[in-house]
Amino acid sequence: MNILQINSSARSTGSESTRVADAIVARLRASNPDASLSRRDLAAQPHPVLDETTLQALFTPADQRNAAQAARVALDDALIAQAQAADVIVIGAPMYNFGITVQLKSWFDALARAGVTFKYTENGPVGLLKGKKVYVAISRGGFHKDGPTDAQLPQLKAFFSFVGLDDVQFVFAEGMGMGPDSVARARASADEQVNAVLV
């Protein structure tokens, strides 16, 4: 088993989404002692944002790219190859201002490559990252699950479906900004959910 862990909090330390993602990975490795693990910390090593220069590089044929364009595309290529090689992807995804972090959005933008991780057909887009299990550790300062302020979960589900990741489990730690008692309850709940999804 090849495990890929993506930490997308802006915090390198003290992140609840990373703590829960670490717990998921620990359970996976306990059940699969020979599993390999690759970690990508998007706070420590942020992926470049999708800008005009990047778009120009991506839409330039490979044999016509200059050195700077080739180097930029290679960054995305390495990220895609890492995801393709994974059997299990574990993502720490905190909610910032009702959505995903800019760090995770940059990872998504790099991962979505027409003809590589998805393709367009006459019947619509088809995801090509098939046969992988995904676990997502979501942390939030307030309580948003199943409510009108939860713009994060639909975005995550839509993106995963778009690239073919259709076996996804979510673990929630909500109320992290509402005092010590709420934090304790959130952590206990998240740990129970980890145990439930990793039986």
UniProtKB/TrEMBL annotation:
SUPFAM superfamilies, sorted: Flavoproteins (SSF52218)
Leading EC class: oxidoreductase
Domain Flavodoxin-like fold: 1-196
Reaction catalysed by this enzyme: N,N-dimethyl-1,4-phenylenediamine + anthranilate + 2 NAD(+) = 2-(4-dimethylaminophenyl)diazenylbenzoate + 2 NADH + 2 H(+); 2 a quinone + NADH + H(+) = 2 a 1,4-benzosemiquinone + NAD(+)
Cofactor descriptive note: Binds 1 FMN per subunit.
Subunit structure: Homodimer.
Name of the featured protein: FMN dependent NADH:quinone oxidoreductase
Species this chain originates from: Pseudoduganella violacea
Gene: azoR
